[in-house]
Design a protein that fits this description.
This protein is elongated. With 601 residues, the protein is an alpha/beta fold. Helices cover 35% and strands 15% of the residues. The longest helix has 20 residues. Strand 7 and strand 8 form a beta hairpin. Helix 1 packs antiparallel against helix 2, helix 4 packs antiparallel against helix 6 and helix 15 packs antiparallel against helix 20. A 6-stranded mixed β-sheet has the order 5-4-1-2-3-9. Strands 14-15-18-13-19 form a 5-stranded parallel β-sheet. Strands 8-7-6-10 form a 4-stranded mixed β-sheet, covered by helices on one side. The protein folds into 4 domains: 45 residues; 123 residues, no CATH class; 246 residues, Rossmann fold (3-Layer(aba) Sandwich); 109 residues, no CATH class. It contains 21 helices and 24 strands.
Length: 601
């Protein structure tokens, strides 16, 4: 006998062997019938059928578990802890499908309903059996509740892991790498590197590991070198800025352009888009991609500029879990089910339209570490940081976030107001003069899908070549500092005056050399900001003003507060500078910056 022999061939050898001559006629009939069964199962390409049902109401949980395992069902362990909740899946020829008890029960019913009478008879009827009817089997499965199926069978399926954890069966997942991205389609796999974009046949990756079912795009793809299409046009125009010179302009569209500043923002946007599509997590590049409108101000949100449309389009590349930012709890501690819709195969978490009350730092550990997910009524599981989903956020508001901890965990892109202006003009992006159609409403075979995906491939390649390219974010960072200085009820007027004073009056009047007393600076402030001071029912008294100066300078990169006293420490009190004769000393401030030479010119 050889290892290549099938079950039917082995049984035939038994009948034809010398020992087979000793078989009774009844045993010979049974073996011939079993050979017929095995041949039919081999023709169907199914594993050896493990019988788990022995009459009406008689289901063997042990053999049912074996049957399910032989048909690809198992449990996925994502963490090395043996106590972690494992996830139910089915391996369908290398494609992993997530399941639950309800879907497994449906699969069993549909499996046996799909058998024709001949196949059913081969599986369940042998000459020494009583005649067993299909309806009895289906009735037995119907009575086998989901709870019974889970506790008696599914919870005890073999456990698998990518990392060969103790007590698990190993399997390989076909994933993106640091230098390569793979996007799967029905007709092939697009491989993207910094130097090439190629379409590979599906067969070229079949032996490289399993893939999640949700990672296969339901489209056929062909490659093109052209950067075109409806989405490409929409994407680029989200970065348009208003021209400085609007003379002789007859159409509002001509008031906008892609200038040097917005070109930098466009590069930041393209590389962030490629970063979100690329599923590999590099520890030193784990960032939250953050889209905001350039014209958002304190207390005055701005929307309709396309940021949500751009970010949400990532769902066409990978499985998305959407979080409603308006319903996001302020501190997240009160809702452990915040990310309950995240599953093992989720590759993108989109937090849309976050409110200014949200504490951004609550996401820090999730951005750089493992992701713990807990759903209602089910045990929590952990997605390791190397395989967790990328995260993106949009907001119409300025958020209070500044400092090194924030900067190294977020990638900010500021959107222009081209599409907002379009809406205010009573027009629609789908109008012929703009896009000429509605994004993503295309039929499956429409070439716009091909153009859309090819645009994304180029963004991924740009990210692999250059990494996440940051823009200056000077508008957003300034507004974020204003929020930290004045709070959510401020309007930014006082902070704007201080910023302007640092950049102009401080230099022209020589205060960067000798400093200025707090009293004198506050006097200048009150003359220009009458509505902000207590006499006009404002809150900017001297104490508030003094703290605002410290906060502004401390948060602004390259600005220094009484730098000559830095040896004393980094707090406001440690940098306190008193000038004057004994008994008549007053607080002085000397603000210097890394940009004074340029500003002096």
């Amino acid at each position: 006998m050889t290892t290549e022999q099938s079950n039917s061939e082995l049984l035939r050898e038994i009948i034809d062997s010398p020992e087979g001559e000793l078989l009774s006629d009844a045993d010979r009939i049974k073996l011939n019938y079993k050979i017929r069964c095995e041949k039919r199962l081999e023709e169907l390409g199914q594993p050896e059928f493990r019988r788990f049902w022995f009459g009406k109401g008689k289901i063997s949980s042990y053999y049912l578990r074996k049957f399910l395992e032989e048909n690809g069902f198992g449990r996925y362990q994502s963490n090395e802890s043996r106590l972690i909740e494992t996830q139910l899946f089915k391996n369908e020829r290398g494609v992993l499908q997530l399941h639950n008890p309800n879907s497994v029960k449906r699969w069993l019913r549909e499996y046996f309903e799909s058998l024709d009478d001949f196949d059913y008879e081969l599986i369940f009827y042998y000459p020494d059996d009583t005649d067993i009817y299909r309806e009895d089997l289906l009735s037995s499965l119907q009575d086998y509740t989901e709870t019974m199926l889970k506790t008696k069978c599914l919870d005890d399926l073999s456990v698998w892991s990518e990392d060969s954890f103790s007590g698990t069966n190993p399997f390989n997942m076909f994933n993106d790498t640091k230098d390569k991205a793979y996007i799967l389609f029905e007709n092939g796999v697009v491989e993207i590197t910094k130097d090439s974009i190629d379409l590979l046949p599906i067969a070229s990756i079949e032996d490289k590991g399993q893939v999640w079912e949700s990672s296969i795009r339901k489209h056929n793809i062909s490659l093109t070198d052209k950067d075109e299409g409806m989405f490409c046009k929409f994407f680029n125009r989200t970065m348009y800025r208003e021209r400085d010179d609007k003379t002789n302009v007859s159409d509002w569209m001509d008031e906008f352009e892609l200038n040097d500043e917005s070109n930098g923002e466009l590069t930041a946007l393209r590389t962030s888009y490629g970063y979100l599509i690329h599923s590999h997590n590099t520890p030193d590049v784990s960032k939250l991609v953050f889209y905001i409108d350039e014209h958002s101000e304190l207390g005055r949100p701005e929307g309709g500029n396309g940021k949500s449309v751009v970010m949400e389009s990532i769902e066409h590349y990978k499985k998305k879990a959407l979080q409603d930012g308006k319903r996001f709890r302020q501190n997240m501690d009160g809702d452990r089910f915040q990310f309950s819709n995240v599953e093992l195969d989720t590759k993108f978490v989109f937090i849309d339209d976050i409110t200014p009350e949200f504490h951004f730092e609550k996401l820090f550990s999730m951005i750089t570490g493992d992701m713990e997910v807990e759903g209602k009524g089910v045990n929590k599981f952990v997605i390791p940081k190397s395989r967790k989903p990328k995260m993106g956020l949009t907001t119409n508001y300025v958020l209070a976030s500044n400092g090194t901890s924030f900067e190294r965990r977020q990638h900010i892109v500021e959107f222009g107001n081209y599409w907002n202006r379009c809406l205010n003009e009573g027009e629609s992006p789908s109008d012929d003069k703009h896009l000429g159609g509605t994004l993503f409403s295309w039929d499956k075979g429409d070439d716009e899908w091909n153009k859309f995906y090819n645009f994304g491939f180029k963004c991924v390649q740009e990210y692999l070549q250059s990494g996440l390219v940051s823009s200056t974010n000077k508008n957003y960072l300034t507004k974020s500092i204003k929020l930290l200085v004045e709070g959510k009820d401020g309007d930014g007027q006082g902070t704007e005056w201080l910023i302007d004073w640092v950049k102009t009056t401080r230099i022209s009047d020589g205060y960067l050399i000798d400093g200025i007393s707090e009293d004198e600076l506050y006097s200048q402030f009150t003359k220009d900001n009458v509505t902000l001071v207590p006499s006009s029912k404002g809150i900017w008294d001297l104490k508030y003003f003094s703290q605002a100066i410290w906060t502004l300078v401390d948060l602004t990169d390259g600005w220094y507060y009484n730098k000559h006293l830095a040896r004393n420490g980094n707090t406001k009190s440690q940098r306190r500078w008193l000038k004057g004769t004994r008994g008549n000393q007053v607080p002085y401030i000397r603000i210097t910056t890394s940009f004074d030479d340029d500003w002096s010119k």
